[in-house]
Give the backbone structure.
Amino acid sequence: MNINIVAIVPARGGSKGLVKKNKQLICGHPMIAYAIKAAREAKKISRVVVATDDQQIAFAAQEYGADVPFLLPDHLTGDSVRLEDTFAFVAKELRKSDSTIDYICFIDPTRPVRLPGYLDQAIDEMEKGEYDSVISGMKEHKSIWKKTGDGLERLDSGFTVRQLKKDEIYVCSSGLITCTKISFMEKGERLGHKILIHEFTDHNMSVDVHSADDLRLAELILSEWKDRYIRI
């Protein structure tokens, strides 16, 4: 089955923790370029669209091969705006000129460390199982707790004898890839009803850049392991 998948890379111009983070350089290239490169390398993705309100980011995105068909309106640029609202706006705008889009893939520019082929593997698995959505996640083997009033509640199955398996619990990293049927994205829903978690085991892919230290860590990883991850 051939499906039409469009990747959306959201990149606001304003950012609080790390100023102008999407334009910060990693190994000589703006951070957003790594998300664009990953999406462009994916055989299953037909188009890469950057959603931004910033003309400089738009120019940089186009330089690295992404489309920027429009700038985001002011009401989608504030700190309190949900990403889902941005996805819904972009999905509806794209459908005006292309009614054949089946899925929208969210690729976060703050996650610059990705293995080659990871996006295609996730999409292939989603296609085969006819899922509404696929989201990346890492299996968590440690104990998981949450605060409940004055106490604590354990969410996993607790300590077990060696022969028994604990519950399978995943920490999801939606920004590595979240791919969802456009019918859900248009309604402001990031995920559909039938959801697949595509597991990753490489801890370096968990890097999420929101501070100067995160930026240095991403550069260290991509400099040290030049042949392992997607590079520009």
